[in-house]
Amino acid sequence: MKNKALIKYLTALLLFGLNGIVASHIAMNSYEIVFLRTFIGSVLLASLFLLTKGRFHLRNNRRDYIFIIFSGIAMGASWMFLYEAYQQIGVSIASLLYYCGPVIIMIMSPLIFKEKLTVPKIAGFLAVIAGIILVNGQASAEGLNIRGLVCGGMSALMYFFMVTLNKQSKEITGMENATVQLMISFLTTAIFVGIKEHFVFHIPTEAIPWILMLGILNTGIGCYLYFSPLSKLPVQTVAICGYLEPLSAVIFAALLLNEKMTLLQVIGAVFIIGGAMTGELIKVST
Q1: In this structure, are residues 172 and 68 in contact, taking their beta carbons and an 8 Å threshold?
Q2: Which pTM value belongs to this model?
Q3: Domain residue ranges in the chain
Q4: Residue by residue, what is the 3-state secondary structure of the chain?
Q5: How high is the pLDDT of residue 142?
Q6: Is residue 145 classed exposed, middle or buried when 0-12, 13-18 and 19+ CB atoms within 10 A define those classes?
Q7: How far apart are CA 108 and CA 157, in angstroms?
Q8: Cβ atoms 83, 34 nearer than 8 A
Q9: Whole-angstrom distance, CA of residue 60 vs CA of residue 76
Q10: Axis-axis angle for helices 2-17, 244-256 (nearest 10)
């Protein structure tokens, strides 16, 4: 059961790693892209959920729904902060700040989830952090500003709340969990875009296939694969393996966008993979 959940989670991370590749073909404002991807993704999941005769169990699981709703708000906010950070300080530094989210989870898990920090997990965690620094270490300090740094930090904080709040849902899992999560994320994004841009924007014809791919595959299906196994995985596994997303994004960019990886970035990739394997596969009895 745990292996199946882990495969789902890793597949979702790879899909999310492709987000930048897909988005590079969409000539639109970043907030508009987030709005469209959450709209299409939530419509897809809601349709699939209803077609398979799924039922919302709000009446009997109000506590779980409260956690999922707040987790959805955190996810929408996290994506919006992240995309604003992309514009303000660039993708590399923004990504580095965003993936401090799993670091916060790792640090807080003994207090919140009563999970033990074993020596292999600590070693794997440190290796992953070193790898992320190496992969993103080529970023220039030029153009850094307080607003961008704050947005990057807030995206990490919202990531922490997104994962930890969703993990509190014990009864509402699978398709129902993912559907509610993404619908709330869309509503959060829609409110922001409505206030900021009044829903007035142009969708280029050539971008439509990429928008559909981003919304259906990378968001709708990706979010289902991401959230449905969370309750079955240790939070530290979620934190460490979560770094597969930025690692895969770097690799996909090198392969599909011809972005070159430096030697330090290659070494960093090895650190990330090795750290994730150390933290997940090596067990130490306590």
Answers
A1: yes
A2: 0.77
A3: 2-281
A4: CHHHHHHHHHHHHHHHHCHHHHHCCCCCCHHHHHHHHHHHHHHHHHHHHHHCCCCCCCCCCHHHHHHHHHHHHHHHHHHHHHHHHHHHHCHHHHHHHHCCHHHHHHHHHHHHCCCCCCHHHHHHHHHHHHHHHHHHCCCCCCCCCHHHHHHHHHHHHHHHHHHHHHHCCCCCCHHHHHHHHHHHHHHHHHHHHHHHHCCCCCCCHHHHHHHHHHHHHHHHHHHHHHHCCHHHCCHHHHHHHCCHHHHHHHHHHHHHCCCCCCHHHHHHHHHHHHHHHHHHHCCCCC
A5: 45
A6: exposed
A7: 12
A8: yes
A9: 26
A10: 40
Q: What is the identity of the amino acid at 132?
A: I
| Segment-wise mean pLDDT, segments of 10 residues, the chain, 286 residues | 82 88 82 90 87 77 90 91 75 72 76 74 79 64 67 89 87 81 92 84 90 91 80 76 78 75 74 68 47
